[in-house]
Structure formats: C-alpha cells, structure tokens
Specification:
Blueprint (H helix, E strand, L loop, with lengths): L6 E3 L5 E3 L16 H14 L8 E4 L5 H4 L7 E4 L4 H12 L7 E2 L5 H15 L1
Parallel strand pairs: 3-4, 4-5
Antiparallel strand pairs: 1-2
C-alpha cells in the first residue's frame, strides 16, 4: 500500500500537491506525519484480524525518524547510513539510552536490507 500526498493537475497543467492529512506532531512537516499513518495502518489491519509479529521500517529522511520512534523491541528500523534518520536515531540513543526500542540496522545498499530479511526468514523456518 502506498501513502502519498494527493496530486492533481491545475487548469494550466501544473502539478499541485496537497497535504496527506492534518496532524499535531511537532516533529513532522505539516503535510504528513508518517507515525500517524503507520499507526492508522496497523490499527486498520488489526480490525481485519491481521497482526504483525514485526514491523520493518526502511527510511533515510528526518521525517522517517518519527515513525521509527514508535517501533517496539520486536521491530527493526533500517536507517540509511549517513542520512538524517540515522543521525537522529544515533542522537536519540546517546541522549536517552534504551528509549529507542527497535533494533537498528544501518544500510548503504538495498542488498544489505535484503540479506537481513533473508536471514530473518531463515530463522523463522
């Protein structure tokens, strides 16, 4: 499922973007809080009797830190090395050890993420 700002062409053929939703999160841009989206999605799936053992969140931007901060100890955050999400997680871990609950697996290439996922699946079998 893809979550994105709504887009449309105006009368002049110019692409315009609207906000995804309104929210009160002070860490996120006004148009979208990814933590709110993730929480709503997980709640929607729970109402459909779908429960997830793990949430695996891959990101790189500062706006990916907010949803990553809502992950539990059963989950995994994949921040791209050297990008804002990675830096913010490191700062959070230094300031408040243990406050960031998810396992953190920094990556430079999607191959690293794929290897981790393959290993996770191998352990489950």
């Amino acid at each position: 499922k893809v979550f994105s700002n709504p887009a449309s062409l105006d009368r002049r053929g110019v692409l315009t973007l609207g906000p995804y939703h309104s929210h009160k999160c002070l860490r996120c841009p006004a148009n979208m809080c990814k933590a709110k989206i993730l929480g709503e999605y997980l709640a929607e799936r729970a109402r459909e009797d779908v429960e997830f053992q793990h949430v695996l969140y891959v990101g790189d931007g500062a706006n990916d830190f907010c949803p990553a901060g809502t992950l539990t100890a059963a989950d995994v955050a994949f921040p791209r090395k050297g990008y804002p999400m990675h830096r913010l997680i490191q700062e959070s871990q230094e300031k408040q050890p243990g406050a960031f609950q998810a396992a953190v697996v920094p990556w430079e290439s999607a191959v690293e993420v794929a290897r981790y996922l393959q290993e996770l699946l191998r352990r489950k079998c």
